[in-house]
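[step 3/7] inverse_fold.run input=structure_tokens len=311
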């Protein structure tokens, strides 16, 4: 069934839905991929509508979606996660109650071992971003570091949608960092160079994601000047003079975290070999501004041999 047909059926079948759901549940165990895919897609669409709540089908459909996470078919696993994410729009008031289970499903999706193109991980990240606002803080905080570490490699993925989704999710996660502020601050520092360099990403949607994530990170960085810069210069509707912006960012970084110099340089060196020409050009400029603004006491940190060789 096409998505529009599925959603129309989900909206209008009303009183007949409990019987339809009951008859479809066995097909989720069918030996035929096509049957499992169609039923999972239909259930995923159902969860997008509050009708499942009205007819007290939410738990049944949700449990069946959770049960599809180990399905041998990648598309079924992907659709199951989409369905669970859809609860955020279909029954947002129920997300909190099932938060721990939904969160576990998303984390399992990100850790899917049989996902060569990261399609399941992409679905998990997109769905988790939708669910976050409705989850209990304590549920998220228990998984916060695991998720932040897990999504970090996707920031540099060759696939733009993976870069975008992971960076947006990281920005959304910062809202929950208060409890474990120091540990999460470490994750922000780990991702900071990457986010600043990807402001030069060839894909506008990734640039937009980086602006959002940096605006969200600002208040957690303990540097008012940097926070103000991110909020003022990284507005979605504002074009960015990148060189001038980075010069000022590096000034604030070296005033607030001079001991971070070597670490920031090392991360930038990694991007000297980036496949993206604008990012490859931004990395040495970033290092130049860092060295320009560091005070003499901390200059000794710089490993000149490493810098000159670009390794």
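[step 3/7] decode complete -> sequence:
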């Amino acid at each position: 069934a096409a998505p529009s047909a599925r959603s129309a059926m989900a909206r209008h079948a009303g009183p007949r839905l409990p019987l339809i759901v009951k008859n479809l549940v066995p097909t989720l165990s069918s030996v035929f991929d096509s049957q499992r895919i169609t039923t999972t897609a239909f259930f995923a669409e159902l969860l997008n509508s509050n009708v499942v709540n009205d007819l007290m089908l939410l738990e049944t459909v949700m449990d069946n979606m959770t049960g599809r996470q180990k399905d041998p078919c990648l598309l079924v696993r992907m659709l199951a996660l989409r369905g669970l994410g859809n609860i955020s729009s279909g029954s947002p008031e129920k997300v909190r109650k099932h938060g721990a289970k939904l969160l576990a499903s998303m984390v399992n999706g990100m850790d899917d071992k049989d996902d060569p193109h990261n399609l399941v991980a992409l679905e998990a990240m997109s769905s988790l971003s939708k669910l976050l606002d409705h989850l209990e803080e304590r549920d998220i905080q228990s998984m916060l570091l695991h998720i932040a570490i897990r999504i970090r490699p996707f920031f540099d993925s060759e696939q733009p949608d993976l870069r975008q989704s992971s960076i947006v999710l990281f920005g959304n996660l910062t809202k929950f960092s208060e409890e474990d502020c120091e540990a999460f601050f470490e994750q922000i520092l780990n991702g900071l160079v990457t986010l600043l360099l990807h402001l030069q990403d060839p894909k506008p949607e990734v640039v937009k994601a980086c602006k959002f994530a940096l605006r969200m990170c600002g208040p957690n960085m303990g540097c008012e000047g940097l926070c103000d810069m991110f909020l003022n210069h990284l507005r979605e509707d504002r074009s960015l003079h990148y060189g001038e912006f980075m010069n000022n960012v590096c000034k604030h970084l070296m005033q607030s975290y001079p001991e971070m110099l070597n670490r920031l340089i090392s991360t930038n060196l990694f991007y000297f070999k980036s496949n993206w020409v604008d990012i490859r050009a931004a990395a040495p400029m970033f290092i130049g501004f860092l060295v320009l603004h560091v005070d003499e006491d901390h200059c000794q940190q710089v490993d000149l041999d490493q810098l000159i060789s670009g390794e």
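[step 4/7] annotate
The radius of gyration is 23 Å.
The CA atoms of residues 69 and 108 lie 8 Å apart.
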